[in-house]
Backbone:
């Protein structure tokens, strides 16, 4: 579904600042993968590069989405092809009501606005519809608002950047369950276009979201490179028990220099 | 000397006096309208088949009589409709009011504004083409807004109107006035003297829908007596050649003023818009807000707060957004104070649309144009105070941006 080959990425405004290097990732149709990695390792950069954000420039390699090379496509084109992202730090848009954006999203899918109320209610976000987008939203509210938007956008492949960080325990359950709906791994929401072919890439530090969603595979990122891939729960255990520095020493870990390919 | 003659004399002396702000205009290029050209209408619903209905609506003028407290519609020189639906309010063509109230109206005639302010005020005295008189009676709370529209229908036609609005003690009224045209070139001068009496509230919403070759020079001064409230909303989103206005408000004790301006500068447009609030009375408050978007035009956003008494609080804010390389926004905020026991502040910001904002919306599937439109619209949507919900909804429609910027 998503295939990334030999990707090398620099910061557009700071040429020579390479953040991702020799990055390979293959997510088969309908699979959801999880991405671990220490702060600053390049996880958010990868998600934004997949979405096509111009802050990052692809120097080498390619990104294929459902067989189509999207490396040079605009953000809009990628969104229209079915990619969607939840941002770690989305910008404020004063004066633009969440409701207005929600209407755009359902219109885009030729759905009725009834869906907005339904999903907003589920996410306990109804009173936020009349608020300016992201303005003075708390950390947890941002997460729910991003989720609301994605549920209305209904992308085929979903990029989630720490969907549960900063979320209280009660809200975690809500976010977890609705993320499950979003990823199409739950058939329990009759009005939602449930789609088994949906895929995703989810960044998490704590792994809490994994209690609610099914993920097929995990990857560990270090220094802009995917060093290790495997069963998500095992990877998480190793990271918890050994920490990232030890993790990187593991025999399974590949670095660019050693160029070992172990899965 | 008869005061009328002294007015004319003063006006003649000032007929070539250049205005402080804005480029000079050769008034001889425009012809003053003759009376009795346009037929009066009996009923607002007659407008349903009117060829300019769309333009009127867009300027806030409705053909639905049941939602307004009164109407005044002037085409070129002719008042084609004036009526009140509420006994608490009075709407008349200004010349009728001058005659009917000749015993007291001189207290409001050229009292806020000096005739010799500039050539535009002088010219209005010399070649007045009517205008309206609106009065809310003492204590009257007018539920529905009162609507007016001043329309120019002839190419290179002029309008030099003189308006008087009086909100008597403890009255409460909202006036929506549109200025619009079906012509391409013309000149509009409007002298407006507003009097907000003790404890009264006047909300005045002005929508300007001119055209590419229009020159516009309103001259407005408002006095707000003790405890009075004046909300002034100004919306100019359509093309215009040159627009210059600098409404001034004088606040007495505990009076408040709030200005909101929403400006969209198309290419080849100069908008020199601002306002001055003189806080004369103790405890007076003022807030002057403007949002300006330049899609290639030049916008000068002025604001002066002049604090002259104690316990004053006033704030001036101007935000500008430049969409095109050729766009210019010049924010000129000024604070004047000659005593320590008051509080005045200003802030101004000018920038372009944030790339992160654009990217965010594009990731939701919007094209760059759609994202720009959504951000600009959001930027221009100031929370306008004092608007009843139905007008706010109308206004939201009005702030729908013209296409093709
Ligand atoms: N636009 C940018 N300009 C300069 N440096 C950047 C930019 N974007 C990312 N970086 C740098 O690249 C590195 C990777 O950043 P990124 O945000 O991708 O990390 P991350 O893995 O998501 O970290 P975290 O877990 O803290 O969210 C960091 O060192 C960061 O400072
Ligand atoms: Mg990150």
Residues:
């Amino acid at each position: 579904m998503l295939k990334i080959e030999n990707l090398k990425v620099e910061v557009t405004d700071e040429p020579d600042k390479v953040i991702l290097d020799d990055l390979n990732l293959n997510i088969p149709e309908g699979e959801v993968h999880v991405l671990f990695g220490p702060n600053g390792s390049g996880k958010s950069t990868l998600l934004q590069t997949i979405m096509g954000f111009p802050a990052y420039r692809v120097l080498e390699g390619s990104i294929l989405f459902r067989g189509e090379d999207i490396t040079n496509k605009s953000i809009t084109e990628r969104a229209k092809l079915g990619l969607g992202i939840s941002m770690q730090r989305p910008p404020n848009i004063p004066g633009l009501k969440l409701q207005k954006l929600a209407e755009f999203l359902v219109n885009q899918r030729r759905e009725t606005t009834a869906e907005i109320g339904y999903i907003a209610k589920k996410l306990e976000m109804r009173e936020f519809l009349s608020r300016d987008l992201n303005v003075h939203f708390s950390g947890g509210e941002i997460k729910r608002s991003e989720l609301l938007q994605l549920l209305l956008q209904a992308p085929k492949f979903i990029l989630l950047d720490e969907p549960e960080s900063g979320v209280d325990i009660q809200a975690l359950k809500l976010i977890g369950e609705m993320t499950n709906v979003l990823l199409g791994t739950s058939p329990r929401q009759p009005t939602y276009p449930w789609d088994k072919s949906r895929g995703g890439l989810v960044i998490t530090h704590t792994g809490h979201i994994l209690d609610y969603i099914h993920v097929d595979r995990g990857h560990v990122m270090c220094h802009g490179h995917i060093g290790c891939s495997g069963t998500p729960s095992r990877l998480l255990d190793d990271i918890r028990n050994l920490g990232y520095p030890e993790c990187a020493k593991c025999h399974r870990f590949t670095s660019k220099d050693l160029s070992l390919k172990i899965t | 000397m008869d005061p009328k003659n002294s007015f004319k004399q003063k006006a003649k002396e000032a007929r070539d006096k250049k205005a402080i702000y804005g480029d000079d205009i050769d008034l001889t290029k425009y012809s003053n309208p003759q009376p009795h050209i346009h037929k009066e209408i009996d009923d607002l619903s007659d407008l349903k088949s009117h060829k300019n209905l769309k333009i009127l609506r867009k300027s806030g003028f409705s053909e639905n009589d049941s939602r307004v407290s009164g109407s005044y519609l002037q085409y070129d020189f002719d008042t084609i409709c004036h009526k009140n639906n509420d006994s608490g309010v009075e709407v008349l063509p200004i010349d009728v009011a001058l005659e009917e109230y000749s015993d007291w109206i001189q207290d409001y005639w050229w009292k806020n504004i000096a005739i010799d302010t500039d050539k535009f005020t002088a010219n209005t005295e010399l070649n007045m083409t009517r205008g309206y008189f609106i009065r809310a009676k003492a204590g009257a709370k007018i539920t529905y807004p009162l609507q007016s529209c001043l329309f120019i229908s002839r190419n290179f036609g002029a309008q030099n109107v003189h308006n008087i609005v009086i909100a008597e003690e403890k009255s409460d009224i909202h006036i929506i006035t549109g200025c619009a045209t079906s012509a391409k070139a013309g000149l509009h001068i409007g002298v407006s003297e507003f009097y907000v009496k003790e404890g009264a509230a006047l909300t005045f919403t002005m929508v300007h829908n001119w055209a590419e070759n229009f020159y516009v020079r309103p001259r407005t001064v408002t006095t707000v007596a003790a405890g009075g409230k004046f909300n002034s909303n100004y919306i100019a989103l359509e093309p215009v050649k040159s627009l210059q206005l600098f409404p001034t408000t004088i606040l007495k004790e505990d009076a408040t003023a709030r200005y909101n301006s929403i400006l969209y500068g198309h290419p080849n447009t100069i908008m020199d818009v601002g306002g001055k609030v003189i806080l004369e009375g103790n405890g007076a408050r003022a807030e002057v807000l403007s949002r300006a978007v330049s899609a290639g035009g030049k916008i000068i956003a002025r604001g002066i707060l002049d604090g002259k008494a104690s316990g004053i609080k006033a704030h001036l804010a101007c935000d500008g957004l430049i969409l095109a390389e050729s766009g210019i926004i010049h924010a000129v905020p000024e604070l004047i104070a000659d005593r320590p026991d008051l509080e005045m502040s200003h802030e101004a910001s000018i920038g372009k649309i944030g790339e992160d904002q654009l990217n965010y919306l594009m990731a939701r599937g919007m094209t760059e144009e759609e994202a720009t439109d959504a951000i600009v619209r959001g930027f221009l949507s100031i929370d306008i105070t004092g608007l009843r919900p139905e007008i706010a909804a109308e206004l939201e429609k009005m702030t729908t941006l013209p296409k093709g910027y």
